[in-house]
Target: Inositol-1-monophosphatase
Amino acid sequence: MNLEKLCNEVKELARSTGEYLKTEQTVLRKRDIELKSTRNYVTYIDKEAERRLVEGLSRLLPEAGFLTEEETVGFEQKEYTWIIDPLDGTTNYVHGDSPFSVSIALMKENEIILGVVYDPLAAQMYSATGAGRVFLNNNPVRVSSHSTLTNGYIGFGIPYSLDERGEQILRNAMKQFRKCSFRIKGSAALEICYIAAGVCDAYFHSGLSPWDVAAGAFILQCAGGKCSDFSGGDNYIFNKELVASNGIIHQEIMETIIQGN
Ligand code: 2AM
Ligand code: CA
Ligand code: CA
Ligand code: CA
Model:
């Protein structure tokens, strides 16, 4: 497999799907907006974008299976699996707001080998095919060198259903409000990429699914960053617990915000 060539083809597909999202946002009508549960929006556009991605990616790699948010195609265990979120940031999207993104990861057995996240409004394409091979558009990027929570620029999200643990973590974060600047941007995939590009220093969110995390986390790690679950372990894609950082402030985030010491 020529990974660089495949990555370029995936980027083209992400770009055209992103253009579709951008155009449709301007004509989206109230009656097209559905709720899966409170705060959890979906539209026909999420599903149509996913259908286009599945069709395009199937052409690029016919032997691969899929793990997708809208389940337009069922999951099947294969050597290669595309993990895709056709529209990450649907809440922003339905409110006519930004950012939102297309997120595509390729997993070989249990390892991610390619990640692409595209923001069509900013025309920003994040991609990675391995350590040091990570780009924002055509420019190589790296994580920030910010070393403490103090004056940090930290992203997070609030899960649709908030359990006791999730609430405690938000309370722990609140205690740090005077120290650092917190942001909720609303597209998990992009918020992880912002760390890869050195814009943000860290991000945490519980309740995320593999399609929110897989591409961004791979891109971040290729850019020198770190991801972990809430115990500090490696189960951050499938376990609904994510802490992502530039690596340097990871331990401090774990201690102050996740463990609440
Ligand atoms: P979505 O727009 O594809 O649904 C918002 O906090 C960000 O987190 C979005 O990227 C949203 O993805 C994602 N998200 C996924 N699962 C979530 C959950 N259980 N609660 C809140 N946000 C979730
Ligand atoms: Ca969704
Ligand atoms: Ca998502
Ligand atoms: Ca989505």
Observations:
- The mean pLDDT is 97.
